[in-house]
Design a protein that fits this description.
The complex is a heterodimer of chains A (366) and B (235).
Chain A: H1 2-10, H2 12-48, E1 54-58, E2 70-71, H3 74-79, E3 84-99, E4 105-113, E5 125-126, E6 135-139, E7 152-156, E8 161-168, E9 172-173, E10 176-182, H4 183-189, E11 200-201, E12 203-208, H5 210-214, H6 216-219, E13 223-226, H7 228-233, H8 238-270, H9 272-280, H10 285-318, H11 328-344, H12 347-355, H13 360-363
Parallel strand pairs in A: 4-10, 6-8
Antiparallel strand pairs in A: 1-12, 1-13, 2-11, 3-4, 3-7, 3-12, 5-8, 6-10, 7-8, 9-10
Chain B: E1 6-15, E2 22-32, E3 37-41, H1 48-55, E4 63-68, E5 71-72, H2 78-88, E6 89-92, H3 104-115, H4 119-132, H5 148-161, E7 166-170, H6 178-195, E8 198-203, E9 214-219, E10 222-224
Parallel strand pairs in B: 3-8, 3-9, 6-7, 7-8
Antiparallel strand pairs in B: 1-2, 1-4, 4-5, 9-10
Helix pairs in contact in B: 3-4, 3-5, 4-5, 5-6
The chains are: A alpha+beta (366), B alpha/beta (235).
The complex binds adenosine-5'-triphosphate (ATP) and magnesium ion.
Magnesium ion is lined by residues 48-49, 170 of chain B.
Chain lengths: 366, 235
């Protein structure tokens, strides 16, 4: 590519400016992608992490665990269905806790689970709550609020003092840290509700084959089943939030395409007399097309790589103040999209280059 | 009798239709042989650029045949014409001739890249040409840093870089004062004779004619004055 880099070298400022714009746009895309990912994980991680095939909730609950009540006894009926391997009750509720040491009040989610059951989380520090009266396992993010292994806190509702015996990771729900406890303890903490069944829980989690899972409502009246993905998607605000952030990202990608298209088109228009001379002396259109694509690739790759490092640096600076998480795959995906869009943005310029008449070198000279 | 490098037989070129029809060239015949610098002179609008465009495979004639090195290329498709221009023809245009972001040396190396000349050969040849045209010391300057005369000397070097059979120059001295213009044409004439090229030089300036081997007058799209081919030592 004889011409591509020489032209960039000669017009450094111009090309640096367009690369700068690509850096800004792409870093914004990466930041938003990380933010969307982080927010979504904060909302749904505890649900996503459950290794179950289906969740049974009450019929009118719209898959909102907080609104769903199912009788725990139903779990036995469900477990009896052919093709269902196991079924366990699960309690989920929002609550506040007050750290005994500092009096700070923190919003959390309580998960009441069957001890040693399917959704017992792996602890990264400490141990499981089995054998610890009043012991619970907390999500890692709670330690950032000053509650760690061995600390105690008071529940609201319930007013019971509990002790942290284990810490697990990536178990947030509705942007709050989760606290795992035995189902019996969870039930003690629930406010007494008029008319509610004494063994009411939020859902029954099941493992088994899909056909059997789909037939559960026949056995357990007033219930419906969904996958963990379905339940996660129905968390209030989750779909809207993902949609909004995705829309912004799509707009940014379109803007990037527009900027690149305009920039290279204007540069091409400025070069028309020169392009005429080049064609007159025998330069093929293919050569000129390759030159332009090489330039776009060079500028876009540099811009996107710098954009990634800007996004990463920013994420480091912001730290844990906002949920931010991005995987290499997502970066590669968005980087690839931006690159394709950049090349797509040159279509106008390429069409113009193809139309340049070598005769212009003589007729429009001077 | 040697085959002429360039031969036009009965070339006519019409632009437009009906009322707007312009007969830019009418039954023009011209032969140019190796080592011959032919001056083409005539008033504005007489068809000089049209003739050079047809000779340079940039424009197809309405009638007549065009031969390059004895081969009929009148009906060659676009891609083959581009190839011919790249391999067999050296162009020198009036202005905006050089590529703004390449230094003098790179203008020549660009041609080498297009024809796929090995790097070492390309550098040696570029240096030799620039040296011959007195541009070796200014070779690493961009066009904007060169005078008009220097630019045209680079353009001559570029036109010779592909070692063409034919050189076509359309008013290369138009933007120069007469002294510098004459110097440029002197260099062009020297290269044509030393390297045994065939060349056509379009000019307005009668004072340059003594540097050429033959003068062809054109008026209203017809060649006048000297008969075709006369005065050429090689014929
Ligand atoms: N593309 C075109 N369409 C229509 N008419 C044209 C076209 N190109 C040239 N002509 C006409 O053909 C005639 C010859 O033009 P040409 O450019 O060959 O003249 P010229 O001798 O080079 O003039 P000058 O000395 O001004 O450069 C002119 O009347 C011109 O208007
Ligand atoms: Mg002209």
């Amino acid at each position: 590519m004889f011409l591509a880099l020489r032209e960039i070298r000669h017009a450094k400022l111009r090309f640096a400016l367009i690369a700068g714009v690509i850096v800004l746009v792409s870093s914004l895309v990466f930041i938003l992608s990380g933010l969307a990912n982080g927010l979504s994980a904060g909302n749904t991680a505890a649900i996503d992490a459950m290794p179950v095939d289906g969740m049974v909730v009450s019929a009118g609950s719209d898959y909102l665990l907080d609104r769903s009540t199912v009788s725990a006894g139903v779990a036995k009926d469900i477990a009896g269905i052919d093709g269902i391997d196991s079924a366990e009750p699960l309690g989920v509720s929002s609550a506040n806790i007050t750290a005994s040491a500092s009096d700070t009040v923190i919003g959390v989610s309580f998960f009441g689970i069957v001890p040693e059951g399917m959704i017992q989380p792996d602890v990264t520090r400490g141990e499981g709550f089995a054998g610890h009266e009043g012991g619970v396992v907390i999500d890692e993010t709670l330690t950032e609020d000053g509650i760690g292994l061995g600390d105690t806190f008071l529940t609201e509702p319930g007013g019971i003092e509990l002790t942290v015996v284990g810490v697990t990771t990536d178990r947030t729900y509705r942007l709050r840290p989760s606290i795992y406890m035995p189902l019996d303890l969870w039930r003690q903490l629930q406010p007494v509700q008029e008319g509610a069944a004494p063994d009411a829980v939020s859902a029954i989690v099941v493992r088994g084959d899909q056909a059997a899972i789909d037939s559960i409502p026949d056995v357990a009246p007033d219930t419906m089943v969904g996958s963990t993905t379905q339940v996660a998607g129905h968390i209030p605000g989750e779909a809207e939030q993902n949609g909004t952030l995705m829309l912004i990202q799509v707009f940014l990608v379109v803007i990037a395409a527009g900027i690149i298209a305009a920039f290279f088109y204007i540069i091409t228009l400025q070069k028309l007399p020169e392009l005429g001379v080049m064609k007159a002396i025998g330069t093929g259109t293919g050569y000129l097309v390759r030159t332009l694509i090489a330039q776009v690739l060079a500028i876009a790759v540099v811009g996107i790589l710098l954009g990634i490092s800007v996004a990463d640096t920013l994420a480091l600076v912001i730290g844990n103040a906002v949920p931010y998480s991005i995987t290499v795959q997502r970066m590669a995906l968005f980087g690839g999209i931006l690159l394709l869009v950049a090349i797509g943005g040159t279509v106008l310029s390429l069409a113009r280059i193809a139309r340049v008449d070598p005769l212009d070198a003589i007729n429009k000279a001077g | 009798m040697t085959t002429p490098v360039l031969e036009l037989t009965n070339i006519s070129k019409r632009f437009g239709e009906g009322e707007a029809r312009v007969d830019a060239l009418s039954a023009v015949s011209l032969r140019v042989v190796r080592g011959e610098l032919v001056a083409l002179i005539g008033p504005s609008g007489s068809g000089k650029s049209t003739l050079v465009s047809i000779a340079g495979a940039l424009l197809t004639p309405s009638e007549g045949r065009l031969y390059l090195n004895g081969e009929d290329i009148t009906d060659s498709p676009g891609q083959q014409r581009a190839r011919l221009r790249l391999r067999e023809i050296g162009f020198i245009f009036q202005g905006s001739n050089l590529i703004s972001y390449l230094t003098g040396r790179e203008q020549l190396l660009f041609i080498a890249d297009l024809i796929g000349l090995p790097n070492g050969d390309a550098r040696r040849q570029a240096y030799r040409l620039l040296d011959e045209l007195g541009m070796a010391r200014r070779a690493d300057h961009y066009p904007e840093e060169l005078s008009g005369g220097e630019r045209q000397r680079i353009a001559i070097a570029r036109a010779l870089m592909n070692d063409p059979a034919l050189i076509l120059a359309d008013e290369p001295t138009a933007s120069l004062d007469s002294r510098r213009g004459r110097a440029v044409v002197e260099l062009l004439a020297r290269e044509v004779h030393e390297r045994d090229k065939a060349a056509v030089l379009v000019t307005h300036d009668e004072r340059l004619l003594d540097l050429c081997d033959r003068v062809v007058h054109i008026a209203d799209g017809r060649l006048t004055g000297m008969p075709v081919g006369a005065g050429s030592a090689a014929m």
